[in-house]
């Protein structure tokens, strides 16, 4: 092996460590890139040659080469952002985004709702997830997460509880009125007015009527809305011992309502809401289970990847579930820029799933995963690479001096 050819060992070192510095520089440049996964250089020696008829004890290497650049999948730390649509994966899995014709994968969960109501990343690619059935279970295949026009469906009232005191000292014929605000199947406000008239003793007859808000038409009929409330000497309700059921019909466009007035517990005894004490008649509480339709006011994302909406009617409802993907060899994914990865022959096909299931990690809402780059490690690697580069340059200068001495032998 000639001295001239020995220079190429040094040249291979310069080229290899120059490439390694590119990897280190890329890592350091992306130290603040959300969801960035760093890389590390893997070196290998160049195939040796034998200088003694194939003898294994006389093999001389011909320098170094960069064998591969491996992706580091170490978990990055989390940053709390306060933005409800920001997400981070704790553990295995990648978010899935749709570019229109292709799907890509990312650990960067910087998502916002665009003007069309779709959840998009900074590159305007649409996050992928699943629709939910009536039980809140993900169903079907991956779809764009689209929250445009999402509303909370109304719920018809099926019961109410009225808390009131009826004055035991009131004169016979005294009328006290209270009202319960209920909702129809269409979300219309139905005001149920309860008129209570004092009888002899501590007894009150009640009768009910109903009206609706807005431009609802039709004659509203209340059936079962009459009866008597009786109180014992302690002012506690003694009759009725069953809960009256009130039927309300004639509400324009809505289904007939069947509403229970919950006076008594199913386990026995009264709730204690209605009292007949010798004090001013007053309404002090009302609870019921219906509500009107509501518009979307806010979002939240839980560890299972459920996107829940907070609506103007006070209700919270699960809307969609974030989809995740993983690969047999995520180290084989192809970087395409924009914090995105594409599948390749080396990575294998994506395995789709949901957070907290099938080996996938959990999702942290209002959080972002920071770069997994450790600056102190990168600086140490930089120093080592720089010194290695300098050492390889010395090989070339040393060989050059040796060749100079060889040329000078003729003098």
Proportion of strand residues? 35-45%
What's the overall geometry?
rod-shaped
- Count of β-strands: 32
SS content category: mainly beta
Low-confidence parts: none
Give the C-alpha Rg. Answer: 38 Å
Major β-sheet, in short?
Answer: 9 strands, antiparallel
Write down the domain tally: 3
The N- to C-terminal Cα distance equals 25 Å
- Helix run count: 2
Question: What is the compact description of this entry?
Answer:
This protein is mainly β.
Topology, element by element:
Elements: H1 3-29, E1 39-45, E2 49-50, E3 59-60, E4 64-71, E5 78-80, E6 87-90, E7 94-98, E8 103-106, E9 112-113, E10 119-120, E11 126-132, E12 138-144, E13 151-152, E14 159-165, E15 175-183, E16 189-198, E17 203-212, E18 221-223, E19 226-231, E20 237-239, E21 245-249, E22 257-261, E23 274-275, E24 282-288, E25 294-301, E26 306-311, E27 316-326, E28 334-337, E29 340-342, E30 351-354, E31 362-365, E32 367-369, H2 375-407
Structural account:
- The protein has 411 residues and is mainly beta.
- It has 3 domains: 3-74 and 372-410, no CATH class; 81-152 and 295-369, no CATH class; 159-288, Sandwich (Tick-borne Encephalitis virus Glycoprotein, domain 1), CATH 2.60.98.20.
- 15% of the residues lie in helices and 40% in strands.
- The protein is built from 2 helices and 32 strands.
- It has helices at 3-29, 375-407, and strands spanning 39-45, 49-50, 59-60, 64-71, 78-80, 87-90, 94-98, 103-106, 112-113, 119-120, 126-132, 138-144, 151-152, 159-165, 175-183, 189-198, 203-212, 221-223, 226-231, 237-239, 245-249, 257-261, 274-275, 282-288, 294-301, 306-311, 316-326, 334-337, 340-342, 351-354, 362-365, 367-369.
- Strands 7, 8, 11, 12, 13, 25, 26, 27 and 30 form a 9-stranded antiparallel β-sheet that branches. Strands 14, 18, 21, 22, 23 and 24 form a 6-stranded mixed β-sheet that branches. A 5-stranded antiparallel β-sheet has the order 15-16-17-19-20, with no helix packed on it.
- Strand 21 (245-249) and strand 22 form a beta hairpin.
- It starts with a helix and ends with a helix.
- The model has no long low-confidence stretch (mean pLDDT 92).
